[in-house]
Amino acid sequence: MDMFYMAKSSISRAERRPIVLPGRVTWKDVRGTTRFASVMTRNISDTGIFIEWNESTSIPLYRLVSFQIERDARNVEGLPSALRSGRVLSAVYRQGSFQRRTGTPEGYGLRLLVEPVRRAAAPEPVEATA
After folding, report:
1. Using one digit for the tens of pLDDT, what is the confidence trace for 59-69?
2. Closest CA to 77 of 33, 5, 7, 17
3. What is the pLDDT of residues 90-99, one digit of tens each?
């Protein structure tokens, strides 16, 4: 099974959580026609997501897409806040292994185009003298 990993960054890697939820991807094909597909997530982080793909069409690498978790599933614990609010602009940047049956990838890695959440450092204790 091809797993989706975040690209290394100078800050840190985002923690992946195995969360399976229904979602929807919307994009424009080469002719400018709007396409959409119902998908399932395989894992999610604050900056990326891997979706399972069972469609007969494919999405080219680096294509901008809109991704959203289905409305009924947006309150699941561990879901990043960006995915709770609706559509998130994303970029396709990884394809899973190709399925022999359809000739399309088994899934796609999407980079969520949102500002990453920064973890605040623990404040240093301050001593006061009078």
Report:
1. 999 999 999 99
2. 17
3. 999 999 999 8
pTM for the full predicted model: 0.77
Do 104 and 53 meet the contact criterion of CB atoms below 8 Å apart?
A: yes
* Short-list 5, 10, 17, CA closest to 43: 17
Question: Which tokens go with 44?
Answer: 């999610």
